[in-house]
Design brief:
By secondary structure, the protein is of the alpha/beta class. The chain contains 12 helices and 8 strands. Bound molecules: nickel (II) ion.
Length: about 280
C-alpha cells in the first residue's frame, strides 16, 4: 500500500506541474530547432555553390579578356606557347621557310640564332661540299630541331649528269649528313629545281620545290625580299631563301615577325607536305 501511494504521489505531482505538456513542448522545440539548423545549412551550401560559380565565371572572363588583349597587341613567344598549352590558340596558317646552299660559316649561325630567338624551326637544304667544311654547323642545325634536306653535293644540274653521277651527288651528301646527325635526310631539293627524271628509282627521297621564290641571292635587298614574301604568301606555302647572305638573315627575321602577327605559324616542310 505504501508503495502504491508513493507512485500515486509522483503521478499527482507530475500532473500538477504539467510535466507531459512540457515534455511535448520540449520535443516540438527540439524538432523546430533541428529543422532550422538543417535549413540554414542547406542555405549556406547553396550560397557557397553560388559563390564558387561566380568565381569560376570571373576567372573565365579574365582569361578571355587577356587572350583578346594579346591578339590586339601581338604575342611574345612565351605567350604563344602558353596559349597553345591552354588550347586557346586560334587555328594558325602554316608556312615553311627553306634555306638552300648552306651551311655558310657566318650567316647560317646568325640565322640559327635568330630562329631560336623566335622559336621557329626551318628546313635547310645543304650542299655536300659545304657540309664537309662545316660539320659543326650541321650538327647545330640538327640539335636545334631544324629539318635537314639534301641539295646535292656541288650544285650541279642533276638532269645533265649520268644517272650514276647524279645518284652519287645525292647519296654522298646523304651519307655525310648521316655521319654527323645520325639521320638520313628524307627530302631533296634538286639544284635549279631540276630533278633527274629517273633518279626516283635509285634514291627513295621526297622532292621539295617551293611556292614563293624570294630571289634573295640575286637582289640581296632586305626590303625586296620581305615584300616578295608578304605580297605572295598564302597558307601552306614553302618559301625559298638562301642562308648565305646577311640580307637574307635580316629579311627572314622580318618575314617571321610580320607573318606571325598575321596568324601564320612556321613549320618544317614535312608538316606541309604530309598535311
Ligand atoms: Ni641552290
Amino acid at each position: 500500500m505504501r508503495e502504491k501511494n508513493h507512485w500515486k504521489q509522483i503521478w499527482e505531482y507530475t500532473k500538477k506541474q504539467h510535466f507531459w505538456k512540457k515534455c511535448l513542448l520540449f520535443d516540438l522545440f527540439c524538432i523546430c530547432l533541428a529543422f532550422a539548423v538543417i535549413m540554414s545549412g542547406m542555405g549556406r551550401g547553396a550560397k557557397v555553390k553560388q559563390q564558387l560559380t561566380a568565381a569560376l565565371q570571373k576567372q573565365e572572363d579574365a582569361k578571355l579578356t587577356s587572350a583578346k588583349a594579346q591578339g590586339d597587341t601581338g604575342e611574345t613567344e612565351d605567350e604563344i606557347k602558353d596559349n597553345q598549352i591552354d588550347g586557346q590558340n586560334l587555328e594558325k596558317k602554316k608556312v615553311a621557310l627553306t634555306f638552300d646552299d648552306g651551311p655558310h660559316p657566318q650567316y647560317t649561325p646568325e640565322m640559327i640564332a635568330g630562329l631560336k630567338e623566335r622559336n621557329v624551326k626551318a628546313t635547310f637544304f645543304l650542299l655536300g661540299q659545304e657540309v664537309e667544311k662545316y660539320p659543326e654547323i650541321v650538327k647545330q642545325l640538327h640539335e636545334e630541331g631544324h629539318q635537314i634536306g639534301n641539295h646535292s653535293y656541288k650544285h650541279e644540274q642533276l638532269s645533265k649528269l649520268s644517272m650514276e653521277q647524279a645518284c652519287q651527288q645525292v647519296t654522298r651528301t646523304n651519307e655525310m649528313i648521316f655521319d654527323i646527325t645520325g639521320v638520313y635526310p628524307s627530302y631533296i631539293r634538286p639544284p635549279f629545281g631540276d630533278w633527274h627524271e629517273k633518279l626516283d628509282c635509285e634514291v627513295n627521297m621526297v622532292e621539295v620545290l617551293w611556292d614563293v621564290d624570294t630571289l634573295d641571292w640575286s637582289s640581296k635587298n632586305h626590303a625586296q625580299i620581305v615584300n616578295k614574301v608578304l605580297k605572295n604568301i598564302k597558307e601552306n606555302d614553302i618559301i625559298l631563301m638562301h642562308d648565305g647572305y646577311e640580307t637574307s638573315v635580316t629579311a627572314a627575321m622580318e618575314i617571321i615577325d610580320t607573318l606571325k602577327k598575321q596568324g601564320y605559324e612556321f613549320v618544317t616542310v614535312d608538316e606541309i607536305i604530309f598535311e
